[in-house]
Amino acid sequence: MQTTLRSSVSFDGVGLHSGEPARLTIRPAAADHGIRFRRTDIALGDTCIPALWDQVEVSPLCTRIVNRAGVSVSTIEHVMAALAGCGVHNALVEIDGPEVPILDGSAAPFVRGIVSRGVRLLGKPLRAIEIIAPVEVRTQHGLARLSPATGDGLSMDFRIAFPDAAIGEQSKRLDLANGTFVRELCDSRTFCRAADVDAMRAVGKALGGTYENAVVVDGDKVLSPGGLRHADEAVRHKMLDALGDLALAGMPILGHYEGDKAGHAMTNALLHALFATPEAYRVVIVDESTAARLPGAGVRQAEIPAVA
């Protein structure tokens, strides 16, 4: 069945790119509501934005959704990953600023807040998008692909390559069933190269970034205090981002996602390609055995990494 939170939960922080303070509150919602964001700091007009693939305004450094009235919310990928990874299908996400607070740079604080409130079953069946034929997008830098599942749920392969030895080449494959997202991915933080910080700030990005909410690397050095949470934290974070961006499909995806140097824009382009290819997917009613394989199934408080 579809789900929502049992009660509301709030988070306070600053936006990674804007540097502006914001309070974000995730509230329960009815069946078929989906995930929607609402700007509480805007008094007039349409302040709601559905968290859907066709509301995305392409940005290389974050996922930003915009409605027809021009109202937007940026950097939604971590909270979207947390909702998907905890099995929450319906919620109203209220925010009093233009950007989701970055918190510690991962999805773990959102996960801990969601799990602390619990998930409630609703009275309508859950639908999912089953991939039945491959769809992919390519650029000169990489690719993103969806193909039929090898099991009943969602699995993911990701590869990255960066010149800094502290990151280098990394790859990882995960079956995201049974709380894998919470155990393996949710605490992995966003990262950047020290060489890119000044360039980002020159164009108004990373204004809220610190060594405490992002992993900053310089050559073979990790500049952030405490170092890495995982030796392959960078590729894990890319997988976290991909789950959040895939959640903009509006339903869980049953299939295999492959990303090779893929980012937010490429994953969104992949969803555009998917929905433009109706023979590549079908919408199915989720049965009990499939529900047990979805990313949010079996999530337990004790499995959340201690950093959250």
Automatic annotation (TrEMBL):
Reactions the enzyme catalyzes: a UDP-3-O-[(3R)-3-hydroxyacyl]-N-acetyl-alpha-D-glucosamine + H2O = a UDP-3-O-[(3R)-3-hydroxyacyl]-alpha-D-glucosamine + acetate
Family matches, as Pfam families: LpxC (PF03331)
InterPro entries (UniProt xref): Ribosomal_Su5_D2-typ_SF, UDP-acyl_GlcNac_deAcase, UDP-acyl_GlcNac_deAcase_C, UDP-acyl_N-AcGlcN_deAcase_N
Cofactors: Zn(2+)
SUPFAM superfamilies reported for this sequence: Ribosomal protein S5 domain 2-like
Binding residues annotated for Zn(2+), in chain numbering: H78, H237, D241
The enzyme's E.C. designation: 3.5.1.108
One BP annotation, GO: lipid A biosynthetic process
One GO MF term attached to the UniProt entry: UDP-3-O-acyl-N-acetylglucosamine deacetylase activity
Pathway(s) it belongs to: Glycolipid biosynthesis; lipid IV(A) biosynthesis; lipid IV(A) from (3R)-3-hydroxytetradecanoyl-[acyl-carrier-protein] and UDP-N-acetyl-alpha-D-glucosamine: step 2/6
Family: Belongs to the LpxC family.
Function comment: Catalyzes the hydrolysis of UDP-3-O-myristoyl-N-acetylglucosamine to form UDP-3-O-myristoylglucosamine and acetate, the committed step in lipid A biosynthesis.
NCBIfam families named among the record's database cross-references: lpxC
Protein name in UniProt: UDP-3-O-acyl-N-acetylglucosamine deacetylase
Organism field: Ponticoccus litoralis
Primary gene name: lpxC
